[in-house]
Amino acid sequence: MAENRTTTPDPRTQHTRDDFGEQDIPHPGRTDEMDDQPDHGEATYRGSGRLHGRRALITGGDSGIGRAVAIAFAREGADVAIAYLPEEQDDAEETERWVRDAGRTAVLLPGDIRDEEHCRQIVATTVEGLGGLDTLINNAAYQMTLERFEDLTTVQLERTYRTNVFAMFWLCRYALAHMGPGSCIINTSSIQGFQPSPHLIDYASTKAAIVNFTKNLAQELAERGVRVNAVAPGPIWTPLIPATMEPEAVNQFGQETPMGRAGQPAELAPAYVFLASPESSYVSGEVLGVTGGKPLS
C-alpha cells in the first residue's frame, strides 16, 4: 500500500520493487484476475475541491489509469461518465462504487469505441446523465505484443488504430459541440510515442499520433478557450500488462526505469487532475510525462 500523499516518501520504494511473477490473463484483462492488485488511490487520494462541478467522460475508465483518474476526479468534486468494454462490467461497477462513495454522480457506458456511432452516443448519454460535458479524457487503448513485424495482421492494425486514434478523433468532434470556454481535453499518450519498442510497433505509432494530434488541436481550440493536453505514462501496472505481454516480460515489468520499478495508476491521477484544473489555465498543447525518470525525448 502506498504511503499517504501528504508525506514525503522515497519515490524508489513508495511502491513495490519486486517482480510481478509470470502472470498471464485473458484480454482485455480484469483487475480481480491479477495476482498483484494495482493501487488506484482508493486508500490514499485526498481531494480538495479542485474540480468542483466538472463533468468528465473517461474512456477506459473501468480499471487501471482510468479508474485512478475517476476516483481522483470524483474526490476533487467532478461527476464522471465511464466508457468501457461490456466484458469489463465488473471492473466498471467497482469504479462506479468509488465515484458514488465520493458523493458524485457516475454514468456507466458499456460498448466499443471502435464504432463511430457508439462514440457519438456515449457523448450524448454523458451530457444527458451529467447535465453537460466539459472534460474529455481519451484514455482507452489497445495493445498486443508481437514477435516480429511480419506477425502484425491487418485485423490487429485496424483494431489498434480504431481504438487508440479513430475513437479519439470521433469523441473530440462530438464532445466539442458541448464544450465552451474552460473546457479541456486530455489524451493518454505513452513513452512509447517517444521511445518505441519494436514488439509494440502498431501501438507505439498510435501513441506518437496522439502527441501530434494533441499539439495540433490545441492550437485551433485555444481561441475558443478549450485546452488540449496529454499525459505520457511510462510502464504502469494495469490489467492490460499481463493481458497483452509475455509472462516473462511481465515478471520484470518496469524494472528498466531509473527508479527501478513500474508505476501505479494512483501515481498518474494527479497529472490528469492538474491538467483539468484551473491551475493549468495557461497550459495547452503539452505532454506531461509520468515515466519513473525515463526521458520522453
Condensed summary:
The protein is α/β, with parallel strands linked by helices and 297 residues long.
Write out key terms for the chains shown.
single chain, 297 residues, 7 strands
Segments where pLDDT lies below 50 for 5+ residues?
none
**How much helix is in the residues?**
25-40%
- Rg from C-alpha positions? 18 Å
Number of helices: 8
First-last Cα distance: 32 Å
The arrangement of helices and strands along the chain is EHEHEHEHEHEHHHE
Strand order of the largest sheet: 3-2-1-4-5-6-7
Mean of residue pLDDT values: 91
> What class do helices, strands and sheet pairing give?
alpha/beta
Q: What percent of residues are in strands?
A: 5-15%
Shape field: globular
Q: Care to count the β-strands?
A: 7
Q: What's the main sheet like?
A: 7 strands, parallel
Describe the structure.
This protein has 297 residues and is of the alpha/beta class. 34% of the residues lie in helices and 12% in strands. The chain has 8 helices and 7 strands. A 7-stranded parallel beta sheet has the order 3-2-1-4-5-6-7, with helices on both faces. Strand 1, helix 1 and strand 2 form a beta-alpha-beta unit. It is globular and about 45 Å long. It starts with 54 loop residues before the first strand and ends in a 7-residue tail after the last strand.
